[in-house]
Every structure is written in C-alpha cells, then in structure tokens.
Amino acid sequence: MKNWLRTAGALALTLTLALAGCDNASDKAAAPAADAPKTGELKIGFVYPSPVGDAGYAWAHDQARKALEAKGGVKTAFVESVKDGADAERVIENMARGGYDMVFATSFGFMDPMMKVAKDFPNVKFMHCSGFKASANMSNYFGRIYQARYLTGMTAGFMTKGGVIGYVAAFPIPEVIRGINAFTLGVRSVNPKAQVRVVWTKTWFDPALEKDAAVSLLDVGCDVIAQHQDSPGPQEAAQERGKYSIGYNSDMSAFAPKAHLTAAVWNWTPLYEAMMQELRAGKWTGERSLWWGMDKGVVDIAPFGAMVPKDVQDKVLAKKAELVRGEDTIFVGPIKDQAGQVKIPAGVKAEDKELLGMTWFVEGVVGSVQ
Q1: What are the two backbone dihedrals, phi and then psi, of residue 283, each rounded to the nearest 5 degrees?
Q2: Do 252 and 180 fall within a single domain?
Q3: In terms of C-beta density within 10 A (0-12 exposed, 13-18 middle, 19 or more buried), how is residue 77 classed?
Q4: What is the domain-level CATH number for residue 345?
Q5: Same structural domain for residues 90 and 235?
C-alpha cells in the first residue's frame, strides 16, 4: 500500500506457518558469503498497516499467511495496525532481533523503516510490498492490480445507467492513480462517453469518512461507486441508495450483496509460496522488484453479483482470459490525459517505469491529482 498509512489499532501476534526468501537470521552479524539450503522450521514475520478484520488489504495478506501455515514447517507471526515511521521501524526491528528468517512489510509507508533495519541485520531477509527501494538483503514486490481494475471498470461501464461513476480514492500516489486510470480505461472501452469522478479521502481505512465520500459522489449523480480503501463503507453507501458498487482488496459482497458487482482482489499465496521455496533452497536474492500479474494468479476479480447479466460477464471474462495468457494491452496507446494531450502514442505500450511513476489522469477522469 502506501507512504502515509492507514489506520492504527490493535497489536496482534499469531503463530503458525509461512513463507519465503533465503538465508539465515542473525543479529547484526556480517552476511555470509553464500546462502545454504534451510532444513529446519522457517520463522516468518508479517507487518500490516491496518486491522486484519473480515475483508480488505491486510485480510488478503493474512489469508496467504494462513495458507503457508497449512503447509507445515513454518512458524509465522503478524502485527496489525502498524503506523508508518518509528512504529514500523520498531516492529520490524523486533522481528529481526527475534530470529525471523524473513520479514514482510506490506505497506508503502514501511519502506524507509525497513531499509534502515535491513542495513543493521544483514542475515535477515526483508520483503517490502509496493515500494521501490532494495538492497542486498531487501527486495520489493507487488501485484499488477491495475489489470483487475480494468476488468472491474469494464463491468462498471456496462452497468452504469447514467454514465457517471464515482471513485473513492485513497492517496494521490502512483499506485492509486494507476488504478484509477486502468479502471477508467476499462469503463471507456465499453462506454466511451462515461465519466469517472474522483474524491480523495487520504485514508486507507476509515469506514465513516469513506462512506461519506461515497455519499458525496452519489449526491452528484454517480450510480456506480468504486474505491481503493480497505473498508466496506463505500459499498454500504451504494447499497443504501439502491446503486451499484465495485469492491477492492477482497470480495466485499457480504457487506452490500444488492450493490456489489465484483471487486479487484488479491491472492498473495503464489508469491509468498515462491519466496518460501527460494528461502528453503538458499536461492533467495535481494535487489529485486517483483511485479506479478493475473498470469501468475496474484490478482483477480471477485465473483460477479447476480445482477450482472451473463453477456456482460462473458465479455469481461474474455478480457480476463487475455490477461491470464500474459496479453496485457491495457496501457497501449493512443492514450490521452485529461487535457486531451497524447501521453502514450498509438501502438506504444507504456513501460513499467512509466506505470510505476504515473502522476497524471487519463481522459474521462473528473478530478485533480492532488
């Protein structure tokens, strides 16, 4: 997730089994020349920026942690509702001192604290989610959730009646902007004149505020509400008004069964299992940026609501099949920005560095990048 943070809350440690990477845990010792395969029980830590709860971002990571536990041979612990800065550094350092073989920090705002701790504990393996900094014993990882965003945008574009869709956005950072753009491209691929109106909350998890933001969009005529945050507040607002919604992070249909069309969802298990296998084999390496997509099963969409017609489902699933085959043409030009200027020329596919640094909105988005 991201630089600022989501919500503070309870501290929770849970033991079980887990995941990935390479090398031995040690306390501020010199790094070994080479890693050896690990034969004993792995000890893996997870740091979450929000409560695990029953749905959302931290919940999705925790489902993968539990899946790893089920395989045996791994003991895991997690700490939830961790704030950026000193709080994150303290939690990560405690895990490093506690003999953990690998630590996963799952928020963008944990990047610099993890870099600092990684420098002091060279024998511990560190994995940071959604960032861009790396070192000899730290890599970063994320998923191409924009692919799922595009598919949910298609769904919203088919289902809107008035052609005005609302988007409750978290923070104006590239990850969120990229998701809004992919969603809008999906909307306009099937409904060329539709608009996506954006309201910023600058939160990751604040159910009341996020619900209020959705209400403000419904008040100006939006009939489908999408979101980037963890809470189901926007879903509930849409249902209360008799409108449709698009969830995020996990299947949120239980919170708004009459509104929820589908959701862009995470499945971290394949990536975490791969890291665990590398760790056991002594093949984990730092200085990497892993960005896995639908072809590797890390991102997906939730089951469609009963209100989505079969012909709509079929069209969306046909596009999903392309992405599963590795045929990603979402950010292939011509793509214009809000001012009508061509940002990605015809036939050109945006490079990953452009996507990772995206700070502009595509044509069709109503709102400012701020």
Answers
A1: -115, 5
A2: yes
A3: buried
A4: 3.40.50.2300
A5: no
Please check whether residues 120 and 214 belong to one and the same domain: no
The b-or-e profile of 114-130 (16+ CB within 10 A means b, else e) is bbebbeebbbbbbbbbb
Calculate the alpha carbon distances from 325 to 189, 263, 265 in Å.
20, 21, 18
Are 277 and 315 in a shared domain?
A: no
Asked whether residue 180 falls in the same domain as residue 320, the answer is yes
Rounded to 5°, the CA angle 220-225-231 comes to 120
Q: Which amino acid would we find at residue 210? A: E
Can you give the residue range of the structural domain that contains 233? 145-265+298-366
pTM (two decimals):
0.88
CB 335 within 8 A of CB 342: yes
* Same domain for 215 and 189: yes
Residue 17 lies in a domain: no
Digit-by-digit pLDDT tens for the chain (370 residues) are: 433 333 333 333 332 323 333 333 333 333 333 588 888 899 999 999 989 988 899 999 999 999 999 988 999 999 999 999 999 999 999 999 999 999 999 998 999 999 999 999 999 999 999 989 999 999 999 999 999 999 999 999 999 999 999 999 999 999 999 999 999 999 999 999 999 999 999 998 899 999 999 999 999 999 999 999 989 999 999 999 999 999 999 999 999 999 999 999 999 999 999 999 999 999 999 999 999 999 999 999 999 999 999 999 999 999 999 999 999 999 999 999 999 999 999 999 999 999 999 999 999 999 999 8
- SS3 per-residue string spanning 115-158: HHHHHHCCCCEEEEECCCCCECCEEEEEECHHHHHHHHHHHHHH
Give the DSSP letter of residue 348. P
Count Cα atoms within 13 angstroms, Cβ side, for 171: 16
